[in-house]
Amino acid sequence: MSSATTPYHHGDLKNALIEAAVTLIEEEGVDAVSVRAVAKRVGVSPGAPFRHFESRTALLTAVAEVAMARLAQAIDQALAQAGGQSALTQYMALGRAFLDWAFANPTHFRVISSRALIDFDGSGLAAANHRIRDRMRALLQQALDDGEIRNVTVDDAMLATRALAYGLARMYVDGQMQSWDVEPAQGLQMAHRLLDEQVMRLA
Amino acid sequence: MSSATTPYHHGDLKNALIEAAVTLIEEEGVDAVSVRAVAKRVGVSPGAPFRHFESRTALLTAVAEVAMARLAQAIDQALAQAGGQSALTQYMALGRAFLDWAFANPTHFRVISSRALIDFDGSGLAAANHRIRDRMRALLQQALDDGEIRNVTVDDAMLATRALAYGLARMYVDGQMQSWDVEPAQGLQMAHRLLDEQVMRLA
DNA sequence: ACCTGAACACCGTTCAAGT
DNA sequence: ACCTGAACACCGTTCAAGT
C-alpha cells in the first residue's frame, strides 16, 4: 500500500477503470475506448478489467451511468433556476439544458443514446431516463391545465419536443449541421431557437 | 474465364465488394462489415479489397452512395406521386418518404447519417444531400408564396422539419422508442403524425 | 494489372499460473 | 480475492511474391 511502489492489488480498480474510460472518451471518442487501452492507462494487464466488467459493453455502460448522472444533474440545476416560472417556461428550460449538455459533451451524449454500445435496460439508465420523462410529462400536464398549451395531448407534445431536441443534438454530434447550411458554431443557438419556437407553437 | 473454375483475376471485384457489403450490412449491421468478412464473402484474399478501396471507410462510403441513391429515388417517387398537389402537401410527402425509407432501412440510414464511418464530403453524398435540401427549400418557398405557411423563414422551417424527421428516425433506429412509451411497431405511424402536425402548425 | 499470403500492430476475451 | 501474461480468434492495412 505504499505510494511509491505499484502494488499487485490495485485496490479500487473498478472505479479507476471507469474514471479512465470517462476521460479517454472525452479526449479521443468512443472508438478509442478499448478495454486494453483503458487497462494500459490505469497500468494494469489487458485481462484485469474482466475481473470487474464482464465485457467492453459493461464497462461502457458504467461510463454511460456516469454521463447520465451528469445530464440529470444539469437538468435539475436548470429546473431549480427556473423554479417559480410558468410550467411551459420550465419545460423549455429543461429542453435547453438537454441541448446544452449534449452540445458540450458530444461523446457522452452519443454513448447514452446508443443501444449497441451499452446495456440500457439492464442498468440504472432506463430508470434515470424515466425520471426525466416523468418531469417532462408533469410540466406539460401543468401547462395544459394552466391553459398555456392547447390542441395537443401531453404524450404527443412530449414526443415531438423530445424528437426535435434529439434530432438537433444528433445533427450536431453527427457533424450534419454544415450539410444543412448551419455553421457548427451557431448550432446551439439555432437549436435553442427552433426548440423554443416549436414549444411556443403549442400555445 | 470459365464459369466452373475461379480465375485468379476476379473481373469486377470492386462492384462485387460493394454488393457484398450492401447485403452484409442489411443482414448483420454495420459492425459485421469488416473488410476481411466482405473479402471472404466474395471469395478473395484479405488484402485484395485494398486494391480497389484505400480503406474500410472508402468501402463504406461506396455503400453509402448506393444507399443514398435509393433514398433519393424513394423521394423522387413520392414527389412524382404527389405532383399537382399543393406545395405543402408535397413537402409532407417528401418528409414521409424520408421516414419510410429510414424505418425500412435502419442500417443504411445509419451509414449515410454518420460522418465517422464514411467520407461524406469527399464523395457524391454531399451533392446528393444538396439536391434533397434544394427540393425542400423550393417547396417551402412555394408554400410561403402561396400563403400556405406564415410567420417562419424558409430556412427555419426547413431545419425544424428536417431535425424532427431525423430525430424521429434516429430514435427508432437507436432503439429509443420504447424508452419514450412508443411501441416500436407503432413508431412509423407516430412519426408520420408528428411530422404532419409540425408542418401544419406552420400555417 | 490484379490477387495471394504472410506479416504487423491492434482488438475482446479466456484462463492457468502467480501473489 | 485479485492480477499477470500467454493464448485464441479476430481486426485493418501493407507488401513482396506470384499469375
What does this structure look like?
- The structure is a homodimer.
- Chain A has about 200 residues and is mainly α.
- Chain A is built from eight helices and no strands.
- The first copy, chain A, is elongated and about 65 Å long.
- The interface of A and B includes residues 160 and 193 of A.
- Chains A, B: GO terms for molecular function: DNA-binding transcription factor activity; transcription cis-regulatory region binding.
- Chains A, B: This is Transcriptional regulator, TetR family.
- Chains A, B: Keywords: DNA-binding, Transcription, Transcription regulation.
- Chains A, B: It comes from Andreprevotia lacus DSM 23236.
Write the element-wise H/E pattern of chain A from the N-terminal end onward.
HHHHHHHH
- CATH homology-level superfamily of the largest domain in chain A: Tetracycline Repressor, domain 2
The structure class of chain A reads: mainly alpha
CATH topology of the largest domain in chain A: Tetracycline Repressor, domain 2
If classified by CATH, what would the architecture of the largest domain in chain A be?
Answer: Orthogonal Bundle
Low-confidence stretches of chain A: 1-5
Beta-strand percent range of chain A: under 5%
Please report the first level of CATH classification, the CATH class of the largest domain in chain A. Answer: Mainly Alpha
Give the largest interface pair and sizes.
Answer: A-B, 39 and 38 residues
Number of helices, where a helix is a run of at least 4 consecutive DSSP H or I residues of chain A? 8
Strand count, sense and barrel status of the largest sheet of chain A are: none
Mean pLDDT of chain A: 95
Quaternary organization: homodimer
Q: Number of domains in the coordinates of chain A?
A: 2
Measured between the Cα atoms of the first and last residue of chain A, the distance is 63 Å
The percent range for helix content of chain A is: 55-70%
Shape of chain A: elongated
Count of DSSP E strands of chain A?
Answer: 0
Spatial extent as radius of gyration of chain A: 20 Å
